[in-house]
Amino acid sequence: MNDKFESMIKLIDELTDVLAKIADMKRQIIVAVREDDLGKLADCMKHEQVLSLTLRNMEQKRLKIQDELGLKQVKLSELPLKVKDADMQIKIRNAADKLSAQYKIVKSTSDAARSILECNLRRVEQTMKKMGVDPSQIQTSNAGIHTDFHA
After folding, report:
1. What is the mean pLDDT of each run of 10 residues along the chain (151 residues)?
2. What are phi and psi of 73, to 5 degrees?
3. May I ask the CATH architecture of the domain 2-118?
4. How far apart are CA 45 and CA 49, in angstroms?
């Protein structure tokens, strides 16, 4: 049973690391937007998608381990309360607290990135309108856009 809890702690730590990478990527997105570097922005967004898929996969693993522990419906914040071993309880609480703190950082950087992207999009739309172009009438094309699964 302790092996499963150790696996859970390891996975929670890995989730925390991925969230830290996502927060860093959000910061890089902000820099790319401020520098008007569309190439860098596109690269950041591709990398962010890969990290998001990794995060989703890891979350599924976490839920599977919780199910194996008989804790399927237990929230991560409540997990330490379900552990009988005091040392393991402390380890899980510490890992869960770190994950929660990192999630708050990701949320904050994500909100900032979204805000700056929206601001710049409005600026582009205003410029288009000044040029006599209606942004809602622009047709986009997917020609030349390819998904890079090796990003």
Report:
1. 86 96 96 92 94 94 90 88 90 94 96 91 83 74 50 39
2. -95, 5
3. Up-down Bundle (1.20)
4. 6
Q: Which residue's structure tokens are 């869960």?
A: 96
Do 146 and 46 contact (CB within 8 A), yes or no?
Answer: no
- For tokens 């942004």, the residue is 135
- The domains of the chain are located at 2-118
Cα 32 from Cα 97, distance rounded (Å): 31
pLDDT at 123: 86
Q: Are 41 and 30 in contact (CB under 8 A)?
A: no
The predicted structure's pLDDT at residue 98: 96
Gap between the Cα atoms of 43 and 8, Å rounded: 32
Contact indicator for 12, 97 with CB cutoff of 8 Å? no
Half-sphere exposure of 79 (CA within 13 A, CB side): 29
